[in-house]
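Narrative summary of target 7.
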Amino acid sequence: MRRIRITLAWDGTEFHGWQVQPGLPTIQGVLEEIIGAIEGKPVHVAGSGRTDAGVHARAQVAAFTIDNPIPADNLRRAVNRLLPPAIRVLDAIETDADFHPRFDAIAKTYQYTIHRAPICSPFEWRYLHHYPYPLNEAAMISAAGLFEGEHDFTAFAASDNRDEEGKSRVRTIFSSTLARSGDHLIYTVRGSGFLKHMVRNIVGTLIEIGRGNPDAQAMTRFFDANSPRKAGPTAPAKGLTLLSVEYRQC
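Modeled conformation, tokenized:
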């Protein structure tokens, strides 16, 4: 048996996220169908985490176990020939038998892009959130750093079918920055892990701060796990891209 690790990029516009869902096109579902056909039996493809419908990825990591002796790079080419153009396998390597792309990850980086100009090009529209309305960008940029550190992000998480497991919603954010680049406001966040809708809710909260509601000091109260208030609103999925997943060893 061989454990294969792959790095993927995709345009998530036409997909209902990573995780297999009956009757719906998903990244995991497409991969399992194609790799299973090559292997001649069902193959489970594990990802470094789930992404929402419409979210994109530049370097998602996944892994699966097969018997097929095909060299890893030949497997990459074979899978890419069968994948739709919106999904590409960037690389494939053999790895340790016990490697798990989710549980072995030590950090992930996401980027969210807000388009601030009055008109959004149709060639960019699929990959960003067009918000041409007045915002106090300086307040937003200042507030972005408040997310750094270890916090309980319950107020920034959507309900999840894993909630009944009672797992901690404390996460560590290593860096959280918002910066202007041309017509774009780009939010980049690197952390130990992320809850469902967490980045999109952070962005939605930053936009609310830009509108003056709430101010940055009021926002910090969302880190109180006993707070009855929820952050938000949830920013559209199409502005979010998974940039990278980090591991201690390749």
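The chain has two domains: 2-95, 106-247.
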